[in-house]
Amino acid sequence: MSNNDSYVRQSILRWIVISIFVIIACRTGYLQLIDTQYKRMAANNVLRYEVQYAPRGEVVDRNGEFIVQSKECYDLMVVWRDMDKQGFDTMRLCNVVDISKEKMVRELKNARMTPRAPYLIKNYVSQEAKLRFEEHNYPGFYTIKRTVRQYPRKIGGNLLGSLGEVNDKDIKNGGGEYKMGDYIGRSGLERAYEKYLRGKDGVKILERDAHGAIKASYMDGMYDTLPIPGKRITSTIDVRLQAFAEELMRGKIGAVVAIEPSSGEILVMASSPTFDPDDMVGSDRGNNYMRMLNDVQKPMFNRAVQAKYPPGSTFKLVQGLIGLQEGVLTPAHAYPCHGGYSYGKKKMGCHPHASPLDLRNAVAQSCNAYFCYVFRDIIENRKYKDVKEGLDKWVEYVNSFGYGRKLDSDFLDEQRGYVPDTEFYNRIYRGSWNSYTVLSLSIGQGELGCTPLQMANLAAIVANRGYYYIPHIVKAIEGQDSIDRRFYEKQYSGVDAKYFEPIVEGMWKGANVAGAGTSYRAYLPGWDVCGKTGTAQNPNGRDHSTFLSFAPKDNPKIAISVYVEHGGFGASAALPIASLLEELYLTDTITRPQMVEQVKNLPYYLPRRYQNVTKK
Question: Is the pLDDT reported for residue 287 higher than 70?
C-alpha cells in the first residue's frame, strides 16, 4: 500500500469523524435552542393545564324574559399516569358519578392509550355528583366546570336550535377556535349566532409534585387566563306569544310565523310538532336525537322556514297587485263567477257567492274565477310578444314579493320555495303550453311552493303598502351598537304603494263585515283586522288550511301567517289560531276562551304517512 493511499484513507476517516461531531453539535444546539418538545414534555411532568370553559351567552325575549340560560355541570377527567391502580375502587366511583361499570372500564382503557394526557370519562356530571366526588380521594381523577343549556319555558326547540360536540370538520374550519370536547351551535339561533354566544375559554395551570399530587397554581396563577363569557342576545320573540302559538298548534302539523311589519322583527316562529329543547341536553341527548330523527312527523324539521307549501288563496293578493301594476285591472273591474271558471271541458270550481264581483269583494269573498281572469290578463298582456314572455314578467313580480328565493333572514336553514318559470314549463311540455296549462298558478296552486315565513312576509308587505324589512330573530347583541345593517333597510316589491289600498280594503271587509267575506271569524272589535283565508288543495289527503292577516289596518303592529297541514278550510283551523294570537298580542288578554277550546279540540285527520306505526 502506498503512502498516498494511506493518506487518502486517513483524510476520509477524518472527515467522517468531523461530520459526525458536526451533526451531533447541530442536533444538540437544535434541541437546546429551537426544539421545545422535550421542554414541553418535562413541563407536562410537573404541570397540568385545565381548560376553564367560557359560559355560553344567554338569550332573552324582546321583553327581557329568559328563554335560554346556562347552568353548571362538570366533566369528569382522568390522567392515567396519576391513577392509583392498586387502590382504585371502580364501583364506588361509578355510583358517585352515575356511570355504568362497563363504560368506566371502556373509557379507562382508552385513557391508557395516552397516559400523560387528560381524558374525558363522563360529561354532564351534576353539581350534586361533583360534591359527592370531592368527599373521596381519587388520585388521577378531577372535574372541570362547564355550563350547559337550560330552557325555563320549554319552548322554541326548532327556533332556538341545539348544541353538539365539535367534529374534525368543525375544528378544521374553525381557524383554531375549537378543540375536541368543545360544543358548537348545530341549528336555529344557536348556530346563526355562534360567534357571539360561544365566548372564549381560559386556562388554569397547576403544579404537581413528584407523586402527581396537585401542590398549587403555577407561579401563583401568573400565566392563568380567565374565560370570557359569550354575549347575551336579546331576541325579537315574544315568549308568551310563542308559548301560546305552540299550545294552539299542539297535535297539528304546520307552522305559525308572526312579524312586526315596522321592523321585520319576528314575534313568533312556531313549527309543529316541535320538541322540548331540554331533550337535546345531557347524557340522553344521543338517544333523544335518534328517536326524533326516526319520528315520521319530523319534530326537528323547522317547517316555518324549510317546508315548501302551496300558498293557496292567500296568493290571490299577489295576483291582484300585479294586475293593478300592469294596468290590466282596476279596482272597479268586475268579473262573473258561475260556480267557478270554465275553460274547454274543464272547470275550476268556486264556492257560492254573489256575481259579478269587483276587486275588493273578490278579495273578501276569495273568488277563484276572478283571479283566473286576472292571471290570464297579466300573462297574455299584448305588450308582451307571447304568453311565455308574459309569464317571465309575472315571475319577476312574484320574486319581488319574496317568493322563490331566500329572504336573507338570520335563519341559516331558510329555504327558497319554488316559483315555476317559462324554462320549467318548456322542459315539461316541450314548449307546447299556454295560459290554460298554468291556470292553477292563479289561485296559488300548481307547482308554487313557499315557506310560512314567506307568507308572513307577504302579510307584512301588504301591511306596509309595498315594502318589508328582512325578517330576523335577534333584536340586540350585548356589546354591539346594532345588528346587521341589512335588517334596517327597506326592501321594495315591484308594485307601487298606491295599488295596495283596494287590496287592503278587501281584506278589511272580509274580516269586519258579517256575510261579506270568508274571514269574519277574525273580527276583533276596534282593531280593524285585515285577513285573507286560503284553502290549499292537497292531492295526498285533506286540504291544507292557511290564513294570512295583519292588524290594525293603519299603523299595523302584527302581521301573521298560519299554515295547518290537512286542516281543511282556511277559516276552520288556521284563522282562529291567527286571530287568538293577534288578540293576545294587541289586547294582552283572551276574551274568547271558547275559541281556544275549539282550536284545541278541532278534529284533525292525521295522514297515515305521519303516523308513527311500529312494524312487527
Answer: yes
Distance separating alpha carbons of residues 251 and 130, to the nearest angstrom: 40
- The burial of 586, by beta-carbon neighbours within 10 Å (0-12 exposed, 13-18 middle, 19 or more buried), is given as middle
Residue with cell 333584536: 475
- Print the domain residue range for 64: 47-81+119-235
Are 198 and 281 part of one and the same domain?
no
Strands 544-551 and 530-536: antiparallel
Q: Is the pLDDT of residue 322 over 60?
A: yes
SS3 337: coil
Helices (H), 328-386: 359-365, 368-379
Extract the runs of DSSP E, i.e. beta strands, from 307-360. Answer: 340-343, 346-349
Residue 503, CA distances (Å) to 297, 360, 363, 523, 530 in order: 37, 6, 7, 17, 10
Cβ count near 124 (within 10 Å):
17
Average the pLDDT over 539-564 and give the result. Answer: 95
Same domain, 224 and 334: no
Structure confidence by residue, pLDDT tens digits, 451-490: 999 999 999 999 999 999 999 999 999 999 899 999 999 9
Quote the Cα angle for 314-157-193, to 5°: 95
Residue 149: which H helix or E strand, with range?
Answer: strand 141-150
Q: Which of 571, 591, 609 is the last residue of a domain?
A: 571
**Out of 235-239, 257-261, 317-321, 539-543, which region has the weakest mean confidence (pLDDT)?**
539-543
The verdict on 262 and 395 lying in the same domain is yes
Cα–Cα distance for residue pair 401/395, rounded to 1 Å: 10
What's the pLDDT tens digit per position in 174-201?
A: 888 898 888 999 999 999 999 999 999 9
- Does residue 146 form part of some domain? yes
**Cβ-proximal residues to 327 (8 Å cutoff; 6+ apart), any chain:** none
The pTM of this model reads: 0.88
Distance in Å from the first CA to the final CA of the chain: 95
DSSP state of 515: T
In a domain, 36, yes or no: no
- 423-439 pLDDT tens trace: 999 999 998 999 999 99
* C-alpha pair distances (Å), 508 with each of 335, 460, 548: 21, 15, 12
Distance CA 307, CA 304 (A): 7
State the pLDDT confidence band at 7, using cuts at 50, 70 and 90.
low
DSSP string, 103-118: HHHHHHHHHTTSTTS-
Residues 356 and 481 in one domain: yes
Spell out where 415-543 has E strands.
Answer: 467-469, 474-477, 490-492, 530-536
Burial of 109 per CB tally in 10 Å (0-12, 13-18, 19+): exposed
Contact, 524 vs 579, CB < 8 A? yes
Residues contacting residue 614 through CB under 8 Å, at least 6 positions apart: none
Separation of alpha carbons 101 and 111, rounded Å: 15
Cell 277574525: give the residue: 522
Residue 5: inside a domain: no
